[in-house]
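[agent] plan:
  1. take the single chain provided in the ticket
  2. run structure prediction with default settings
  3. attach structure tokens to the ticket
  4. add a short note for the reviewer (M.T.)
[agent] executing step 1
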Amino acid sequence: MIKQIATILILGFPNFTCLAQQNFEKVDAWLHNNLHEIGGRGVIMVWREGKVVYSNAQNELNTREKMSMKWVAKKQGKEVNEALQDFNTLTQMPIASCSKWLSAALVMTFVQEGKLSLVDTLGKYLPIMTKNGNGAIQIKDCLSHLTGIKAPLLKEAITNQQEFKSMDDAVENISKMDMEGEPGKTFHYSNVGLQLVGAIIEKISGQSFESLFQQRIAKPCSMQHTTFGNKPVVMPAGGAVGNAEDYLRFLSMILNDGKFNENQILTKQSIEAMQHNYAHYVKVVYKPEEADLWGYGFGEWTMEEGVENVHSVSSPGLFGTFPWVDKDKKYAAIMLSYNFNFKGRHLRYLGLKKLVDESISTLNSIQKY
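[agent] step 2 finished; step 3 output follows
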């Protein structure tokens, strides 16, 4: 039986209560109708004007989905019962490439403090990159997948990552990769850029990536259940674990020009830099199908192809989680799921966003009168 959960008091925002959800019937229906396309479990949350205006979780794993989750649990060394638990707004799970948005925000805190410049070259901090002929790549290239490095396939990259004993090992491995295009002019969506800049902020701070993330992003955003893990080699591009409530807090900060409650975490200038499309008029070697014609900023996709008039930004994850911020309609939302069904994923994203857009517009109209 499908279970629906409407969270009443969550997230720790001022006056954070859910409004009546009757304006989101079509979003309810979308979640019900697409539940088995997104893995049999899903959570959707929407934030607007300091409040959660919609929150719903539905769970109905079928036999095939249960078998799949049992296989995943076995591969990850987890208890089967844990893998089959119902999802809710607090369910903690790997968020894959949604991590990129968090990591880019972390790097921007160093930029706005003057400890790092977007036009600094990798060779300034990582001599081995210069030694192997790619030290001229800039920090901004790393944040926007424009390094020009011929990155390995994701499966190979993850396997390699597990073998490294230090961030220096990871950097050395990347430094030996071939170049496939000119830095700043060649787009290849991968893990390499954020891995390199992650190593740099560890070097200039003398702290681990996880410690920096907790101090500079997680704690000021009240993200108590989000972590990259206390590992010698973290994966800034895809290694975070978190939940829907935490990520919505982060999105609200992005929407609010870098401010969460009383904490100014990012400057408005940093937010604007992150949301510029740097992948326009460049050679595209690879981008995932679900990104379709989207552009790319720092750690996030611009949901329009052009450079001007970026209205919405997102950073979907491999396992189906889809967070986004709509700058025009002034709301943030996340759909959290866990599945490997890539077929039609892009259209599902757009379909869901359209329904949420409509619901928000209805709320705006009600408030006017």
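[agent] step 4 note for reviewer: Confidence is low (pLDDT under 50) at residues 1-20.
[agent] ticket updated
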